[in-house]
Amino acid sequence: MKQKLLILWAVLLVGSMTLQAQNGSEFAAGTGTANDPWQITTAEELAALNNYLGENYYDKYFKLVKDIDLTTWLSKDRGNNENTQGWFPIGWVKNDQIWGFYGDFDGGHHTISGLWINREEQSVVGFFGYTSLNTIKNLTVEIAAAGVKGDAFVGGLAGQSSSELSNCHVRGEGMVSSKAEIAGGLVGMSLWNVSYCSSEVQVGSHGSRFGGLIGYQSTGTIFQSYCKGKVIALDDSSGEIGGLIGFVDEGTILQCYATGEVAGKYNAGGFVGAACGENIVIQECYASGKVTGEGRYIAQLVASLYRDTKLTFTDCFYLKGIDAVTFNEGSIVGTPTPLSESNLKKASAFTGWTFLSSNEQYSLDNPPSTPWMIDEGQTTPRLWWQAMDLSTNNTEIAEGKISLSTIKGQLSIINSGSAVDVAVYSITGKNFARLRGLRGSKTITLPSGIYIVQAGTTTTKVIVN
Q: Comparing C-alpha atoms, which of 307, 302, 304 is closest to residue 285?
């Protein structure tokens, strides 16, 4: 484990490889600037990102402008054994050299589906392999039944990331797994900030340091993110397993939660498997998934604190039944609170927390004063942005005859069917538009927030930023 980490860090110090300069001709449109990013519309254009690796492209911008299904693309060998080994990661590590992806990538609130990878002899594996010095945002990755498999540093979105990740989500029926070590539903190893992200896939490993959202966190802040997937030890040697994060050696985890089951062998925690750092903070978080194990150190929050570790808990909660922490050679500040299954569904049980009022307007650019929402007595707390369906900004209603899209404070409504009455309301019921007998298209300028659009007898929610 340490040897592999040292190799990757040594490569970072040496520098990364840069491929021959490209001019963006592979893409549908754009010039690669912040105001005019290169636009990606097909699987072929996605794969072409591997021509834009290295620090020479750190100031280039890419944007996904439609959903892309990789199923057909991955049915044929296109030079990297795609038909037998699946997607070839964007940015990769080989022979102690890094070909990293450094450009900014905006997923445009779109989904890349049909992703599968079977490269168990290759490390740093995911849709992105190695990313750094950039921002990756507004992207959902949907994993096919074949899953995402690699040797080490494996993630659904990225194998290893030193990028700012925001509003990125991984879901699907396939498992994310590593043969050796370090796997996460979202990211295998994260060395920077992660915000508004989620994972709803199963994660497993034959080694250690794997978690529902992130396998290994080193520095940075994990903010308002969650995991719902099951985390499973794939053999008797598996350890340092966490419902949210497998191993933390520094950093802050703020306003996050994990609800998935954790089935480990040893060092299995409902939130974090093991922690080793001088200043680790877990604040306003909870873990409610069942944790089971056959070996030592099975805990509902953090299984193990190693020597000289300082961990601070503030306003944290966990499912009552087993200890919050089971092995401690460090120091703990603050005491997390155990709650029964029924109390985990009551706002009043979360002392120190406030919950979102129904009349507050918010968006990613204007977040609410508190992140938490709850259906009293029905569900455990969830994050405010989950009600906004941030995975998409394009919606169809009325049997696909009405198309809705949002961009830069504007809601566009396109009716391809017969005339229909359309109304737009805030979530508090305030009427913003009433369009009688709409035919064709109409664009409405709106403040940032969540809106209800009613077309005939059907309704849906949209977000305007």
A: 302
Task: Return the pLDDT at 391.
Answer: 47
Tokens 């750190």, residue located: 58
Residue indicated by tokens 């925690």: 269
Confidence (pTM): 0.82
Residues 211, 215, 221, 226: is their CA dihedral positive or negative?
A: negative
Shared domain check, 253 and 181? yes
Expressed as residue numbers, the domain containing 273 is 2-344
The pLDDT tens digits for 83-92 are 899 999 999 8
Residue 286, SS3 per DSSP: strand
- Domain final position from 285, 318, 344: 344
Whether residues 304 and 397 fall in one domain: no
Cα distances from 295 to residues 37, 264, 266, 353, in angstroms, run 51, 8, 5, 35
Query: Domain check: are 334 and 399 in the same one?
Result: no
In total, how many domains does the chain have?
2
The token pair that represents 143 in the structure block = 């994993």
Rounded-to-integer distance, Cα 285 and Cα 271, Å: 9
Q: What is the CA radius of gyration of the chain?
A: 22
DSSP string, 288-326: -S-EEESSS-EESSEEEE-TT-EEEEES-EEETTS-SEE
Domain harbouring 416, CATH code: 2.60.40.3080
pLDDT tens-digit profile of 353-368? 999 876 566 776 778 8
- Residue at 152 is within a domain: yes
Q: Which residues pair with 431 in a beta bridge?
A: 425
Same domain for 288 and 428 = no
Contact 36, 81 (CB under 8 A): no
Beta carbons within 8 Å of 367's beta carbon, 6+ residues apart: 384, 385
Residue 378 within a domain: no
Closest C-alpha to 304, from 324, 279, 274, 334: 274
